[in-house]
Amino acid sequence: MIYQHKVKVARNTHVQGSYYQMAVKWGNDFNKPIPGQFVMIRMPENSALLLRRPFSIHCLGVNTQGYCGFELLYKVVGKGTHALSQYVSNQWIDILGPLGNGFKIKDTTKSAILISGGIGVAPMFFLLSELLNNGTQCHVINGGRTKEDILRTVVFKIMGVHPHIYTDDGSVGTKGLATDGLEAYLQTQVADQIYACGPVPMLDKVTEIAKKFRIPCQLSLESHMACGMGACLGCAMPSNDFSKPYYHVCVDGPVFDVDLESNAAGCIQKLA
């Protein structure tokens, strides 16, 4: 069930650089989301921004009564996200969600690699929580251009996972790309599953590595979209399914499987 309602902002705080974290409260009729799903947020009426913006669910809020809300981790990159950063506690915000198909966690997945680039870490925190609850051993790789783009490191460590950090300029962690770390790790270790979220060049390389080592891989794709429900067709992308020439990231994804049997570069398919 998709929930559309105005809910209250619990807090909206600056994290570092261009990054912010917002917590919102929800009602009892909001379906519990799964990792990888997203919400569409309507911008403030005084902003003159007509279209909703998509945001990955970063984590869930919990109180003594159970799940009571969720948090968003986002980067200010334009007018929409700047408007979002101006929200304050107890202000009402219009939310549509949870939307899309999230990550699939199998009971047989005993070891997993989570790799993200920049704001691609947003859905991975929620995913990591669920994997750890499932008893899955996790190896986390985070990449970014500079140290400003490396987020949630301390919280990952509190959860008992020490992320391996890569930055383009070497300002923190190892100088290089997150995918360098992925390939190096798989030279000596094995994993049942790879989960990835980040910019397209990173996901293309992750796909190449997953095929090379024959490891099942799920990718969370980022896309511009206006509705989140497959109506506007703004997030259409070519598919490898002859019965459906185009996927829509909002309803067929945003999480897709890598087609390990395909020779086409970056070839994906809907989650089985």
Automatic annotation (TrEMBL):
| Role of this protein | Responsible for channeling the electrons from the oxidation of dihydroorotate from the FMN redox center in the PyrD type B subunit to the ultimate electron acceptor NAD(+).
What name appears for this protein in its UniProt entry? Answer: Dihydroorotate dehydrogenase B (NAD(+)), electron transfer subunit
Annotated pathway: Pyrimidine metabolism; UMP biosynthesis via de novo pathway; orotate from (S)-dihydroorotate (NAD(+) route): step 1/1
Citing just one GO molecular function, the answer is: flavin adenine dinucleotide binding
Signal sequence interval, chain numbering: none
Residues that hold [2Fe-2S] cluster according to the record: C227, C232, C235, C250
Keyword annotations for this protein, in alphabetical order, are: 2Fe-2S, Electron transport, FAD, Flavoprotein, Iron, Iron-sulfur, Metal-binding, Pyrimidine biosynthesis, Transport
The record lists the organism as: Candidatus Magnetoglobus multicellularis str. Araruama
Q: Which parts of the sequence bind FAD?
A: R53, P54, F55, S56, G80, T81
